Amino acid sequence: MSVTQIDIDDEALARVMALPDVRTKREAVNRALRELAERQERATRIARHFERAQRWGAVEEAERLHRAEKDAR
User: Are the C-beta atoms of residues 50 and 59 closer than 8 Å to each other?
Assistant: First the structure.
């Protein structure tokens, strides 16, 4: 773990500290960093799956089925 001195947005920090199980600024910053990293990793995985689905033609098929369902209404 490294020690770093930074300026932190007080309003954003207060919002994170209002979450359950966050009692200190350190916990708040670490939790926010972990959640951001997890969100970005998840978005990367989803994008990779979407690219594969496009190559397989699954996206076009899903769009065709969606349009057909909408037209049937």
Answer: yes
Contact 35, 21 (CB under 8 A): no
Read off the tokens for 45: 């995985």
Digit-coded pLDDT (tens) for 39-61: 999 999 999 988 888 888 888 88
Structural domains in the chain (count): 1
Q: For the residues of 33-59, what is the DSSP string, one character each?
A: HHHHHHHHHHHHHHHHHHHHHHHHTHH
- Show the domain range for 59: 10-72
- The sign of the torsion formed by the CA atoms of 43, 49, 52, 56 equals negative
| pTM of structure | 0.66
Does residue 4 belong to any structural domain of this protein? no
Rg for the chain, CA atoms, rounded: 21
